[in-house]
Structure to design on (734 residues):
């Protein structure tokens, strides 16, 4: 039977599966079959009598992975594995607490709160403490509490704080803890911390589980956080054999608490550990693996390994230097169209990976325009994201005060002290009198039917919208959105939350302003304002449903979402300094190396082909910005990179000054746009032109052909503008 379990394994895999029971660290490179090894090792330990199902505890990070692991073990052994504990950290901790609720200091029927329930409770506590939610957002407090629990820190262990922020957060944390204990509530972070403390406080119970589980196996070990590692160390007593499977080169979740130090210190914490490396990759070409190996070698403190394959060399990595993000999206769509033109290739073979969610908008528009179905993996399309809908609700109210759906969404986002009772009164009168919520609110204020506090709160909201609409009348569409984001408090609301998810929402809101700057109302839509036309455009874009997971469609996702997946053809978009590596990573110690690991993950998702793209200019944070190509590009071996188009030579200003770009083109970069002319000659991307009103500029992009073509021109005086070729009357200076 053991021969059946170990057949079809390569030599390092066989060694890892059949290693004597001892502390074992398996460094499993991307595509090297780590899950296969973990499953086969568990089956081997059971089949050889080194362990029983009852004595095994296996931990992974998702319920899906846990189920797959159990199913594969049962298939290998050809029998059920009752008694074996296989699950996620939270799932196993929950199982312990249900069994030993008394020892854990919990009521027998304690309830688990999900993230939304936790947020609502914290919000109620902040209100009870009479704190201003705009200064102390519940999301920020939720992040603070969960972060402390992930580090195993209770309020009493924090001591006296020396600043207002930490003092207030500590008070919220203390009140939250008391409320949860009184109500018998447990959040996700509490599950593991409570289980850890239960073992600490009950040595006999701990000894029972240490004696029971003589084999502890952990997958994705590089992603463990502080309390998870502490929990595992406590369980792994003197007689327990600990198998850790992971890859320090794929540790990319530091922003949510994962500690790469855990895998790096494993051999120190467990003397006598046997370390094995799985380096043969069964996924990618040798070109892709050599590029990944060279890139990651720039990180320090690695445990070290070199991926290799017995497969083909494969194509070089294609590098495309785009003029801007529209040119980048156009090129990506062209390559996808060319790929799927072959009957052997499918759209689902293709993945577009990007560092920031906000990058998806321009790519989505290009795919929609080309009629290529796509799906955003693990996320929503740009105009369907919650923060974008919140912003659009404000804009809709500015355009139409009687938009009830927009009123409902915007009135208390961010929170401004308008309670549910007040809103119920407003809704009730609106129904009775068949008027809009806006009119109902005005009536209730004028008739003094609301409390003084409620009247003031809703009155300030009405005044905010009216003032915004009045001040934005003469502003450009982009400026209207920027003013709304600042004045409404939406940007500040997310900026205060100080976490990666909130930062992504800020970037999405800034991208909404970029979308407005690049929007041109349809020529037939002459009766509506640019704002109304843009809102219609957003609604129609949101109405274009993305493909389902079962359709043959292009996959789009952030690099973080791509971990664990693989595709024949991968695009890495936005390879620019400040975007990838992300600007924040340049300011925090250790983050740059995590960004490089993220790039390593992106490269090793590809089986056959990789295309990397970067843009000379990209609209970020409301401005046309010029960034150098990502340092990760220069860290790849030159012989493995094929330049699709020679990079335009750009005069680069200082980091915080962005005048007009200066392009120098040659035969390789001088691309003419057919049937679109300036002064009778074909338009050239990078061509210098002059406009009667805006002055001198550079042609960055062109959409369409002939007189109706739209040109994007970067002007020194006003930045980037989209102009209709036949109306712009541009003069060529080239």
């Amino acid at each position: 039977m053991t021969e059946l379990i170990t057949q079809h394994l390569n030599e390092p895999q066989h060694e890892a599966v059949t290693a004597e029971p001892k502390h074992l660290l398996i460094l499993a490179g991307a595509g090297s079959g780590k899950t296969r090894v973990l499953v086969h090792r568990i089956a081997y330990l059971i089949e050889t009598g080194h362990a029983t199902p009852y004595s095994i505890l296996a931990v992974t990070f998702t319920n899906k992975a846990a189920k797959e692991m159990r199913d594969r073990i049962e298939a290998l052994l050809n029998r059920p594995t009752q008694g074996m504990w296989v699950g996620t950290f939270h799932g196993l901790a929950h199982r312990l607490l249900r069994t030993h609720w008394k020892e854990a200091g919990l009521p027998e029927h304690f309830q688990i709160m999900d993230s939304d329930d936790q947020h609502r409770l914290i919000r109620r506590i902040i209100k009870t403490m009479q704190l201003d939610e705009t200064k102390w957002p519940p999301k920020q407090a939720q992040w603070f509490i969960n972060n402390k629990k992930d580090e195993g820190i209770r309020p009493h262990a924090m001591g006296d704080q020396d600043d207002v922020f930490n003092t207030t957060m500590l008070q919220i944390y203390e009140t939250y803890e008391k409320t949860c204990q009184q109500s018998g509530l447990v959040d996700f972070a509490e599950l593991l911390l409570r289980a850890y403390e239960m073992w600490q406080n009950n040595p006999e119970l701990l000894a029972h589980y240490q004696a029971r589980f003589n084999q502890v196996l952990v997958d994705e070990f590089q992603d463990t956080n502080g309390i998870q590692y502490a929990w595992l160390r406590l369980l792994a007593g003197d007689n327990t054999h600990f198998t850790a499977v992971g890859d320090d080169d794929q540790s990319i979740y530091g922003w949510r608490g994962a500690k790469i130090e855990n895998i790096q210190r494993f051999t120190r914490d467990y003397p006598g550990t046997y370390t094995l490396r799985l380096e043969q990759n069964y996924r990618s070409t040798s070109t892709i693996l050599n590029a990944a190996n060279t890139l990651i070698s720039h990180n320090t403190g690695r445990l070290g390994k070199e991926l290799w394959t017995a497969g083909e060399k494969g194509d070089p990595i294609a590098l495309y230097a785009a003029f801007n993000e529209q040119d980048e999206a156009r090129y990506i769509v062209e390559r996808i169209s060319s790929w799927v033109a072959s009957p052997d290739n499918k759209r689902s073979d293709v993945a577009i990976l990007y560092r920031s969610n906000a990058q998806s908008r321009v790519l989505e528009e290009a795919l929609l325009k080309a009629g290529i179905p796509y799906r955003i993996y693990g996320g929503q399309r740009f105009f369907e994201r919650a923060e974008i809908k919140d912003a659009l609700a404000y804009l809709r109210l500015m355009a139409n005060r009687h938009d009830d759906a927009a009123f409902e969404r915007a009135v208390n986002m961010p929170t401004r002290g308008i309670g549910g009772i007040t809103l119920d009164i407003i809704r009730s009168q609106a129904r009775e009198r068949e008027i809009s919520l806006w009119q109902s609110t005005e009536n209730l204020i004028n008739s003094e039917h609301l409390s003084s506090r409620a009247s003031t709160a809703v009155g300030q909201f009405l005044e905010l919208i009216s003032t915004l609409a009045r001040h934005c009348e003469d502003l450009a569409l982009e400026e209207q959105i920027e003013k709304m984001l600042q004045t409404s408090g939406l940007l500040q609301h997310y900026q205060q939350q100080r976490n990666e998810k909130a930062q992504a929402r800020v970037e999405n809101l800034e991208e909404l302003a970029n979308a407005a700057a690049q929007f041109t109302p349809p020529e037939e839509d002459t009766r509506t304002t640019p704002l109304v036309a843009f809102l219609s455009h957003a609604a129609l874009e949101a109405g274009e449903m993305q493909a389902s997971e079962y359709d043959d469609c292009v996959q789009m996702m952030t690099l973080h979402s791509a971990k664990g997946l693989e595709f024949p053809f991968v695009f890495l978009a936005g390879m620019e300094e400040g975007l990838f590596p992300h600007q924040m990573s340049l300011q925090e110690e250790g983050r740059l190396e995590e960004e490089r690991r993220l790039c390593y993950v992106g490269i090793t998702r590809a089986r056959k082909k990789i295309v990397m793209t970067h843009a000379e200019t990209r609209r970020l944070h409301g401005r046309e910005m010029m960034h150098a190509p990502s340092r990760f590009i220069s860290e790849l071996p030159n012989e493995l990179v094929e330049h699709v188009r020679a990079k335009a030579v750009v005069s680069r200003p200082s980091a915080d000054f962005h005048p007009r770009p200066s392009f120098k083109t040659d035969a390789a970069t001088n691309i003419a746009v057919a049937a679109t002319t300036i002064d009778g000659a074909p338009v050239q991307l990078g061509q210098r032109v002059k406009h009667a009103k805006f002055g001198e500029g550079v042609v960055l992009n062109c959409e369409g052909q002939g007189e109706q073509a739209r040109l994007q021109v970067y002007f020194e005086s006003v930045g980037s503008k989209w102009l209709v070729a036949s109306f712009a009357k541009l003069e060529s200076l080239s």
About this structure: The mean pLDDT is 85. Residues 452-472 form the longest helix (21 residues).
